[in-house]
Amino acid sequence: MNPVHVIRKLTTRQVGILKALLFAASLLPFLRLAVFAFTDRLGANPIEFITRNTGDWTLYFLCITLAITPLRRLTGWNWLIRLRRMFGLFSFFYVVLHFTTFLWFDHFFDVEEMWKDVLKRPFITVGFIAFVLLIPLAATSTNGMVRRLGGKRWQWLHRLMYIILPLGILHFWWMKAGKNLLAQPILFATIVTLLLLLRMFFKFRPQKKM
Predict the structure, then answer these.
(1) Number of neighbouring beta carbons within 10 Å of residue 21
(2) Between 173 and which of 28, 100, 183, 185 could a Cys-Cys bridge form, CB atoms 3.0 to 4.6 Å apart?
């Protein structure tokens, strides 16, 4: 039997089990950080290690979230849509950790100094804008908020993802450019560009007549 066909026909129970496993796996980067912190394994610069790690995982989960719809359209695995919200919320979870590290360890909760840093350094500015734009997406992720906003308004709001991801890539690019380490930013930019092109293709391609 074709494995693609088998996966396409996953039952509700099987999807629930898969979702639980992916939820647990998505927590592993956080648990790894916690273990490293308690065992003094964060390296010579713990703040940089935590900042880099949480930032990377924010981008990973944003890319995974963006990939759900193209992958569903390519494979016919319609159950994938049930995972999109979870991955989106994990991207928000890791960006909150990323921002908290910046506010706590870099500025010791001095909001005024934080604002000066945000306004002075462009790569922090775009990263902060991306973080702020993610907040309404996380806040409206529940079924209740979808009903309150209405489907079309909810969809328009969540198109902010098309702004957030490029800003996140730009934030990452500028940060790495200072160290002349552009391999990862180029890879992220390529992946995001391909995913956006795929979404545009599926959106605008002619519909098959029944």
Answers:
(1) 10
(2) 185
The span from the CA of 175 to the CA of 165, in Å, is 15
Q: Which amino acid is at 125?
A: T
Helices 161-177 and 46-75, interaxial angle, to 10°?
A: 140
Tens digits of per-residue pLDDT, 67-126? 999 999 988 899 999 999 999 999 999 999 999 999 998 888 999 999 999 999 999 999
Tokens representing 18 are 């898969």
Counting DSSP H helices and E strands in the chain, the numbers are: 10, 0
- Please say whether the beta carbons of 175 and 163 come within 8 A: no
Alpha-helical runs (H) found in 102-159: 111-120, 122-139, 143-149, 151-158
What pTM, to 2 d.p., does this model score?
A: 0.92
CA distances from 86 to 38, 80, 92, 156 (A): 28, 11, 10, 19
Cα(157)–Cα(115) distance, rounded to whole angstroms?
26
Cα–Cα distance between 89 and 97 in angstroms, integer? 12
126 Cβ contact list (under 8 Å, min separation 6): 167, 170, 171, 174
